[in-house]
Amino acid sequence: MQSRLLRRAYKIVGLTLFSLAFLVPIILGLINQEPWEQTAFRRQVANSIMLFGLLLFMLSREKVEDEFVDFCRLRAFRTALIAGVIYFLQDAFGTLGGNLVDSSFGVLIMQIAVYVVMFYVLKAGLFNGK
Known about the structure:
By secondary structure, the chain is mainly alpha-helical. About 70% of the residues lie in helices and about 0% in strands. The chain contains four helices and no strands. The protein starts with 8 loop residues before the first helix and ends in a 6-residue tail after the last helix.
């Protein structure tokens, strides 16, 4: 089965977009002290750009793309999906004692972070799944 992924160069583009969307609002907030209500739209734009950058990073090819990397991708996607479902169920039943992640954006970022961490841990062979 041939997987359709973006070129490897998009990994750098995605990390750059994520970093800029994360750092620019922080720097602007330090320079220009504005009330919290005036920055809501810019925060939403920055969040969208961060999510897009992480998706570019996540969906880009690795240097060596073989069956092992596809297997690591599959296991990482599965783990991220299960983590999201577990979080959703615990949040729905109120067993978390408060919202750890307060929006759908936070849940998506959490799932992408779980995916990226698991993918590179599995790829490095640090966790053999036994």
